[in-house]
Amino acid sequence: MSAEDTALRDLLHLLFQAHPWHGVSAGEDAPETVSAYIEIVPTDAVKYELDKASGHLRVDRPQRFSSMCPTLYGFIPQTFCGEEVATLCAQRTGATAIQGDGDPMDICVLTEKSFAHGSLFVRAQPIGGLRMIDGEQADDKIIAVLESDVAYGQIKDISECPRGLVDRLKHYFLSYKQFPGEAPRRVEIASVYDRTEAVEVIARSMRDYRKKFGEPEKRIAELRRLVAG
After folding, report:
1. What does CATH list as the number for 36-219?
2. What confidence tens digit (pLDDT) does each residue in 65-85 have?
3. What's the predicted TM-score (pTM) here?
4. CA 20 to 30 Å from 135, out of 11, 179, 194, 228?
5. Distance separating alpha carbons of residues 132 and 128, to the nearest angstrom
């Protein structure tokens, strides 16, 4: 990065808050260790979701029933569930016509600590994931542990995670969009996969992001070119 680009980047960091999806990287050690933006915490009675245009949290919907996410829940910045993620899902499941859901890669972060609210970043280490298919869309949920967490930080693979906690996550994602009286949604969790597969899914979502939105490293140079022009 040139001296002019570095100066412009530093000035922008002083003047503006970075967009949680596009303005923050997945982390220097990604995909092995990632930065995760947390949208909701287990005590939230309202489901918050990132407003993609503004970068702020918005109310997606009040939780109409008792189902609440048992972990911190959010997404990995500068990831995208696109063609590569969908192809892997199709290969692993044998399903056809699978597409990516067009969102950043979802992540659940296990921790013993209580958090009062979302809209924050944590460092997390992937240990596995849920291969979820919503309709005909790949909608993977990476499962990770909070870095240095006393209770969960030593877990390296989902096989070491309490079975009951994984079952609670599966139940939540299979039911949180399903309301009484409505037709059943075509949602399934095709498999629970290990850390190696989770790292591969994240790596693919990072490449999908670059295919969709371009290389983040070149954005400052492009901005300076547009301003100068």
Report:
1. 3.90.80.10
2. 667 889 999 999 999 999 999
3. 0.95
4. 194
5. 13
